[in-house]
Amino acid sequence: MMNRSQSNGWQEYKITSAEFVISAVRPDQLPEDALPEIALAGRSNVGKSSLINRMIQRKSLARTSSQPGKTQQLNYYRINGQLYFVDFPGYGYAKVSKVQREKWGQIIEAYIRERERLKLLLLIIDIRHPPTQDDRLMYDWLKHHGIPVCIVATKSDKIPRGKWDKHVRMVRDTLRAESSDPVVLFSSETGNGREDLWDLILRVIAE
User: Fold this and answer.
1) Which pTM value belongs to this model?
2) What is the pLDDT along the chain (207 residues), one digit of tens a residue?
3) Distance separating alpha carbons of residues 102 and 147, to the nearest angstrom
4) DSSP type of residue 179
5) What are the residue ranges of helices labelled H in the chain?
6) What domains can be seen in the chain, in order of their start residue?
């Protein structure tokens, strides 16, 4: 049963427990308790850890870093004993060696192709800028493998509200995103989009 309560017309998802579980580098290290998994992918330093912390209302459970490329594993966070957030290594950081990038790519590819518990992937995009070539490749690859995708356009607090629609169109057009794939405007600073994203996640794992 999902832990939700009514608040201002929205069924709020209350966070009663959130814990870091493991940094996995091999398939045999992945949790085996059959909870649904919500993965997060995006370029290095796009704010995946900050998004997790805002979603679970914790200041520093997910490790943030000013050094791009620091996350090198699949970081698992168990929420309310009901689901996992799985934080991918960031991509697109030039100072990471080719060998390391290939290693990360193998880990992510194996996970996406084989992990039946993956219910949704959040593709994190900085709304201020057009998606990169790496973002486009990731999106196309996810669609090729039939993975449900939600595009999360973060840092929405950095642009005027009146320009949000324009920037969302830019993100959709650059990714050539399918109209059925949702875009959620998000800000880790203000919490904008948190309720919308939780609502989507809970609907996906309930199906």
Assistant:
1) 0.87
2) 344 444 443 456 889 999 999 998 888 899 999 899 999 999 888 989 999 999 998 877 876 554 544 556 899 999 999 999 999 988 865 455 666 666 667 778 888 888 999 999 999 999 999 999 999 999 999 999 999 999 999 999 999 999 999 999 999 999 999 999 999 999 999 999 999 999 999 999 998
3) 21
4) T
5) 48-55, 98-114, 133-144, 164-175, 194-206
6) 15-206 (3.40.50.300)
